[in-house]
Design goal:
One of its GO terms (molecular function) is pyridoxal phosphate binding. Belongs to the group II decarboxylase family. Pathway: Alkaloid biosynthesis. The protein is of the alpha/beta class. The chain has a domain at 108-358: Type I PLP-dependent aspartate aminotransferase-like (Major domain) (Aspartate Aminotransferase, domain 2, 3-Layer(aba) Sandwich). Helices cover 41% and strands 12% of the residues. It is built from 14 helices and eleven strands. The strands form two sheets. The chain has a seven-stranded mixed β-sheet with strand order 1-7-6-5-4-2-3, sandwiched between helices. The chain has a four-stranded antiparallel β-sheet with strand order 8-9-11-10. Helix 3 packs antiparallel against helix 12 and helix 5 packs across helix 10 (321-328).
């Protein structure tokens, strides 16, 4: 490979990495110039790239030219200040730097011995975050529990569901699998349903309890109690409850205090999915939304959603780490080592689905150190304030309505349909969303609440400012004018 790019050469790395950093920095400087939602058609890239890999090396300059001309048009720009869809996926300078370090070391830290710093830093930063959230001491590594970084909240809910399943199967026997019952609001993320499919929980044993508009789509404790009573009478075994702090559709908050008491009374494993809104709970004024977490068994939050930590970095805490280990541990001969055999260390391979794992704690550590708790709190408060400003703008126009009270940085709203529309404004609001997204100026996503098509405006991109919120509202009003004139 003389004269070409070597697999790892320090000076070549320096040269090429400088070019890449410049490219990324220029991308961020020009980010507002791109359509937020990619406007390409399916299959566009196969028409632009060769159908086989190159036989000989190509230059980084030519590759970056292709990125600009062929890849970026097919990118939906999650970091754009005009991105208001789904929930945010944050990037930051600190997050980038942590990712660079992780890529540079490129360790596969499945057990302590494979890189002690990777395991021990993860333990430390998860304890830091637990203390920022004021989680009960049972979730700290100094006790029987602890925290671990998963890839996504979907992985987090799967591993705790498996741990809970196996705990109950050990108690009631393997033949009782068909009787195990899972409970959650119908607003709970679909990741729980997928976890049940993977874990072998019968679809008919998943209780989707209907959340009502009168409770702002939070799970009603009375519904849970009633469902458990019915299942017990039928000879079933209630074993798992998932509560949510900040549902995907409307950022609803389930009443953890009341649900926790019911779960405790019936010995259910109680997991809380706070993937998005849990981040806000590092602010003292929002911490009360997780009151009752002391009665839960596990708690999850995505730092990559709203805490300036690049994807992926999903934080999971459990009160009993042995439950995870009993369910997920394997120890073939080639993984045995003195430190693990003496049981004086943590092997995170036994807390997750895959064996391999990246050094993800580096980026979280750098975020916490380079920004500090105070600035992270200000960052979240700013987005919540911007969302409140947007909600006020919506309420100022009698043609629109806010469907549920704004709690965090999500506003659920719609264009009020004329009374003679048979579909209750479903098509009208779909067309409004499609028009603004197709314009490329902003990007929104939607949900359906009580049969109504609802637009979701989620503030959370790092570069979003008040001017972007006001411009988004102007775009929405313009498109609403056009649609209403043509009805």
């Amino acid at each position: 490979m003389e004269g070409s790019l070597k697999p790892m050469d320090a000076e070549q790395l320096r040269e090429h990495a400088h070019k890449m950093v410049d490219f990324i920095a220029d991308y961020y400087k020009s980010l507002e110039n791109f359509p937020v939602l990619s406007q390409v058609k399916p299959g566009y890239l196969s028409e632009l790239l060769p159908d086989s890999a190159p036989e000989h090396p190509e230059s980084l300059d030519s590759i970056l030219d292709d990125v600009g001309q062929k890849i970026i048009p097919g990118v939906t720009h999650w970091q754009s200040p005009n991105y208001f869809a789904y929930y945010p996926s944050n990037s930051s300078i600190a997050g980038f730097l942590g990712e660079m370090l992780s890529a540079g070391f490129n360790i596969v830290g499945f057990s302590w011995i494979t890189s002690p710093a990777a395991t021990e830093l993860e333990v430390i930063v998860l304890d830091w975050l637990a203390k920022m959230l004021k989680l009960p001491k049972e979730f700290l590594s100094s006790g029987l529990g602890g925290g671990v970084i998963q890839g996504t909240a979907s992985e987090a809910v799967l591993v705790v569901l498996l741990a809970a399943r196996d705990k109950f199967l050990r108690k009631f026997g393997k033949e009782s699998l068909s009787k195990l019952i899972v409970y959650a609001s119908d607003q709970t993320h679909s990741a729980l349903q997928k976890a049940c499919q993977i874990a072998g929980i019968c679809p008919e044993n998943f209780r989707h309890l209907k959340a009502k508009q009168s409770s702002n789509y939070a799970l009603g404790p009375e519904l849970l109690s009633e469902a458990i009573s019915v299942d017990l009478s039928a000879g079933n075994i209630p074993f798992f409850l998932c509560g949510t702090v900040g549902t995907t559709s409307s950022a609803a908050v389930d009443p953890l205090l009341e649900l926790g008491k019911i779960a405790k009374a019936h010995d259910l494993w109680f997991h809380v999915d706070a993937a998005y809104a849990g981040n806000a709970c590092i602010c003292p004024e929002y911490r009360h939304y997780i009151d009752g977490v002391e009665n839960t068994d596990s708690f999850g939050m995505n730092a990559h959603k709203w805490l300036l930590t690049n994807f992926d970095c999903s934080l999971l805490w459990v009160k009993d780490r042995s439950a995870l280990v009993k369910s997920l541990s394997t120890c073939p001969e080639f993984l045995k080592n003195k430190a693990s055999e003496e049981k004086g260390v943590v092997d995170f391979k036994d807390w997750q689905i895959p064996l391999g794992r990246r050094f993800r704690s580096l980026k979280l550590w750098m975020v916490l150190r380079l920004y500090g708790q105070e600035n992270l709190q200000k960052y979240i408060r700013n987005h919540i304030n911007l969302a409140e400003q947007f909600a006020l703008l919506v309420r100022s126009d009698v043609r629109f309505e806010v469907l549920v009270p704004r709690t965090f940085s999500l506003v659920c709203f719609r264009l009020i349909p004329p009374s003679d529309l048979a579909d209750n404004g479903y098509k009208l609001n779909y067309n409004l969303m499609d028009a603004v997204n197709t314009s490329g100026k902003i990007f929104l996503s939607h949900t359906v609440l009580s049969g109504k098509f609802v637009l979701r405006f989620a503030v959370g991109a790092p570069l979003t400012r008040e001017k972007h919120v006001r411009e988004a509202w102007r775009v929405l009003q313009e498109q609403a004018n056009i649609l209403l004139e043509n009805i």
